Every structure is written in structure tokens, then in C-alpha cells.
Amino acid sequence: MRYLLVCAVFALSVTAGMLEPRLVEQLGQTRSGDLVDIYIKPLGDADPSYIDQVAAGMTRAERREFACDVFRSVAEATQQPILEQLKAYPEGLVTNLHTNWLANFISCSATEEVIREIAMRGDVAWVDFRPATSIFIEPIDVRPGTPGEASRANAWGVDKIGAPSVWSMGYTGTDIVVAVIDTGVNYLHLDLQTHMWHDTPAGLHYGWDMESGDGDPMPTSSNHGTHCAGSVASDGTAGTNCGVAPDAIIMAVKVMTTVSPEAEQNVMDGFEWAVDHGADVLSTSLGYMPAWNPQRALWRTAEENIMAAGVPHSIAAGNEGPSSYTIRTPGDCPPPWTHPQQTAPGGHSACICVGATNSSDVIADFSSRGYVVWEGIAPWFDYNDTPPNAGLIRPDVCAPGVDVYSCSWPGTNVYTTMSGTSMATPHNAGLMALMLDANPTLSPAQVDQILEQTALDLGASGKENTYGSGRIRAYEAVQAAISVGIESGSGVVPAPGLLISAVTPNPVSSIAVFDIYTGEAGRVVVRAFDLAGRQVAVLHNGDLGQGSHSLSFIVPPSMGNGIYLLRADCNGEAAVGRMTVVR
Questions:
Q1: Rounded Cα gap, residues 380 and 560, in angstroms
Q2: pLDDT tens-digit profile of 543-565?
Q3: Domain identity same for 391 and 354
Q4: Which residues pair with 314 in a beta bridge?
Q5: Mean pLDDT of the chain
Q6: Does one domain contain both 288 and 186?
Q7: Is residue 265 pLDDT above 80, yes or no?
Q8: 84 and 222 share a domain?
Q9: Per the omega criterion (within 30 degrees of 0), is the bond before 144 cis?
Q10: Is the pLDDT of residue 509 over 90?
Q11: Which of 460, 484, 508 is the last residue of a domain?
Q12: Is the pLDDT confidence value at 227 over 50?
């Protein structure tokens, strides 16, 4: 299904966005006329709770499609006027213009004059420097497999978590699409070639290479992605079953792992592509070290939106242990479910962060440890470490990640052995595929809760910053997944006739962005009232088709600081929201 997208035109306002401190520092080192790599964050983001309400009765596929349409709609509405200004500059002042809708941002290279002018727009939240980085997590050890490893029917990690017991129940990950967002996948490997992703209508096979912009995600310099894909879904055709879910479908999403200003946006492109093309699970053995100062706000927004799309995301903790505070981004984003021992309050996202254990269930000395905090990151300001709070516990779970035997490249029947949280992450993704095979209606929050509650508790009792909730166990997790109960198809909960999302940003100073869902076409009027019940503004008055629509409203000077109630009316139905104005 597709939904009408409505874009509004923004005007400049006296309230400006801001230059992030590291961009100010970079501009101080830049000569006049030089181009600087930047991110531009428009005001306005999708409201995940709005998507939850509209999509309550949808199948997983319908929910993904609806959510992606909302994300695009918000991005188009908020980015369009900024893009028009950027494209109007003389040639050479703005280059490498690129947009992303999953986290709603613009990337480009621009001169200092352009940067300062763009930052003065009322519809720009902030402008930040885009450094040259790499998201790649180097494996701790890479070596040829030993004769003992090659002689096993199943790789040790597959047996350790109990996956064969789940296969005997009839669940092998059949038809569950796992996107391996990495260095590419050897789709000719005999263990993988019969269950690679295909999109016949689009003429695509295997996945996509985000860097080259083509449909050939074959590796060019690294075994990393192939090895991870094998731990998800190797079926043993070439000799050893290395995959937790041997019948899952691998969607290979090859992303840039070299040092480049485009690297961060390229990985975000990969996240977008995977969700947009029907991935049921994301597996990402990549991440940014805290010292590299990644744009954490963009990654958390992306992870929140991935969760709103109904997709759980297995992410590596990183290989910087055993010191505390070494979790990589986006593995530092919060999980979909709040563990009872998580005392510091905060929100949720799709991220299920994975640490690494060895064959004796001992944490790997390289496995990154938490905790992390978000109290200084707008707009969340959560997961503080002010006593008695102790930040966000990381990781969530751990999985086999030391001396892991799995598929390799080049060749069609080759294997290699690697160590790292990169190797633990696909074990967890494979288990999520088994769980969704057993119960396709599980939400990301339910997937996370089951994984954590059925994990083998290791280390200090309960969830803590070394093992998380413990080492994953497949049989127990799938049994719990089945016990949740399976809803029968779509339409369990009827879609609302009319719904208005939360306003972003909130509080608002100049421009308010929001979404309207109309169950059927009609004339929609959205009004603002003060707390005395007086109408103070009309935010929208016009016909809208059935579906979701992103709208914007320039707050007039007559609306002073305070709380305002929003009321939408259409076809005899009404929906109510609120908006706080702070100038």
C-alpha cells in the first residue's frame, strides 16, 4: 500500500539553527572558499507512537511499508525548502548533496558562507561537521580453520546455544529475511547460494552495494560480511553447518568501510535500503568507537524508526573491552524492552546490543562493556548516571564470538575462523530469525524481552555491563516465543479513522511538523486553541486523501509562549494533540 505525501513550504524565521561545537572548531581551521563536509538536520521527525497506533492491525510487511512512507513523507516535507536553497547556490559552493529519510538529514560539502546561511534558517535544527571515519570493527583474530573445526557437523556456537533442538521442532528460519549490513556476502558460497534474497519484480538478486550503487554485493577485500552471513544462515552444504537459522534468507547489504566523510551516511543508506526492501531482521557487526565522536542523535533516531517499522536489530557491542564505557555506536542505543534492573529511565529503539563469549561461557576479554549515558544528547536527555541511576546497561545479551568457524570468500566451499563481537552478533540475529519463524507476530520489544529473559545468566546476578542478561539460548527462546500466541493475520486492530501525531520539535519556536492519518479521504481542518478554549490559529484546511500526510505550520508571532491544544476534524471524526510554544 502507498500513502499520499503532502509537503509544505517553509519560510525563513528569526529563530536560527545552531552550529555544533566541532563544526565551529573546523570552520576556524578552514580557509575562505574551502569546502567543509557537513550534516544538516531539519526540524521535525516522525512520531513512532503515531506509527504504532495506525499500524496496530497490520502485518509485519504492511507495517514496514507504512512506516517507511511516513519517514519519507516527513523527510520530504522538512528537507525540500532547505534543498532548494542549497541547489540555488552557484556551482562549486555546494557539492556531494545527499539525503537520508530514515533519520531525516542532509549531507553535503559547502563553504563557510553557505554553512552559516543555512544554519540561520528557522527550519534547521543544527549543522554539524562530518568527519572522515570508518565504521568497520576489525576482528580480533582471523585464521584458517583447524581440522577439528572442519570435522564438526555444526560450528560450536550453533550447538552451544541449542539451535539444533529448535530445528527438530521444525523451525529453521524459513522465509525470514535477515539483512547482513557489512562488507558484502559471498553469494556463491555453497552454504548460502540457495537462500540468498531475490526481488524478481525489481530484477535484483542477493542485495545491494551501497557504495557502488549496484546490485552486486560480492566482497572485494574482506571476509567479514560473508563470515557473519554464515553464522546467520550457513546450511552446511559445503561441509559444516555454521548457521543458527539455516533456512533464513540472507539479504546482503554492502556498505562503505573505508575511512571517508561519506562512510557514516553510506551505512545509514544501508539501514534504509534493508528496511525498505523487506528485511525482517537486521544484523550489523559494525560501529563507531566513542572516541570518534559519532553523530549519536542521528543513529538513535534511525534505531527508533527501525523499531517503529517493526524490525529488531542485532548490533555488535565492539571489541574495545574490558574497560568500561567502550560500547560502539549504534550499539549504544537503547533496547526495545526495559529490563527490570534498568534503573535509569529512558526510551527505546530497535537496538539489541551483543557481547561475545567463548566456548566455556566466559566473556571475551575484547568484548566491549557498558554503561552508556544519553543525558547530554537532545532531544532525549535520558539514561543518566546520577546516583542512584547508573546509565544504560550495555550489552543486552552475549553470544558465541571466540574462534567462530564460518563461511569465507573467495571460493564456494571455503571456511575461516574469526573472533569478535562481530561474530556474536549474527548468532543473535539467527536466533531472532528462528523466533520469527515460530511466531511471526512478535514485536521488537517481545523479541528482546524473550531473548533476555531466557538467556543463561552469567557473571553478576541479573543484567549487568559485562554479560548483559546472559548468553542466548535458542530452544528456551523459541519455546517462549510460541507461548506468546500468534495473531491471525492483519486487521486485528482496526486502523483509526483520524489521528494526529505528536508535534516535532516540542517545544516549538518557529515551525511545527506533524502527521495526519485519514482513514478515508475528506476535508481536514486542524486548529490550535489556547487553554482558555479560544481558537488562535488554523494549521491546515484542505482536502487530503486516505493515508498518512506530513504537514508543517509556521507559528505566527501572535502565539506567545504556552501550551496549545490541536484539534483535527474530518468526516465527522476528531483527533486531539498538543503543542508547547517556547520562543
A1: 25
A2: 999 989 999 888 998 899 999 99
A3: yes
A4: 283, 352
A5: 92
A6: yes
A7: yes
A8: no
A9: no
A10: no
A11: 484
A12: yes
If you search the block for the grid coordinates 517503529, which residue do you land on? 308
Q: State the CB neighbour count (10 A cutoff) for residue 194.
A: 9
* Confidence (pLDDT) at 495: 65
CATH of the domain at 562: 2.60.40.1930
Annotated catalytic residues are 182, 224, 422
Among 484, 518, 540, where does a domain finish? 484
Contacting residues for 497 by C-beta, under 8 A, at least 6 apart? 518, 519, 520, 570, 571, 573
- Taking only the tens place, the pLDDT of each residue in 271-290 is 999 999 999 999 999 999 98
Q: Please choose, from the candidates 568, 551, 573, the residue with its C-alpha nearest in 3D space to the C-alpha of residue 78.
A: 551
Of the candidates 300, 291, 325, 314, the one whose C-alpha atom is nearest the C-alpha of residue 378 is 300
403 & 439 share domain: yes
Residue 66 belongs to what H/E stretch? helix 60-88
Which triple of cell numbers denotes residue 140?
580480533
DSSP string computed for 529-571: E-TTS-EEEEEEEEEE-SEEEEEEEE--TTS-SEEEEEEEEET
Grid coordinates in use for 459?
Answer: 557473571
Give me the pLDDT at residue 191, please.
Answer: 98
CA distances from 72 to 75, 105, 107 (A): 5, 11, 16
User: Does one domain contain both 426 and 346?
Assistant: yes
Residue 260 near residue 283 (C-beta atoms within 8 A):
no
Give 101-118 pLDDT, tens digit per residue: 999 999 999 999 999 999
Q: pLDDT (tens digit, 9 = 90+) per residue, 77-103?
A: 999 999 999 999 999 999 999 999 999
Q: pLDDT at position 497, please?
A: 85
Return the amino acid letter for 68.
C
Q: Above 80 in pLDDT, residue 8?
A: no
Rounded to a whole number of angstroms, the CA Rg of the chain reads: 24
Please say if the pLDDT value at position 10 is more than 50.
Answer: no
Range of the domain at 364: 157-484
* pLDDT of 276: 97
Q: Which pLDDT band, with edges at 50, 70 and 90, does 490 fall under?
A: very low
Residues 385 and 510 in one domain: no
Annotate 217-281 with DSSP letters as a single string.
Answer: ---SS-SHHHHHHHHHH--STTS-B--SSTTPEEEEEE---SSBTTHHHHHHHHHHHHHHTT-SE
Asked if 9 and 15 count as a contact pair (C-beta separation under 8 A), the reply is no
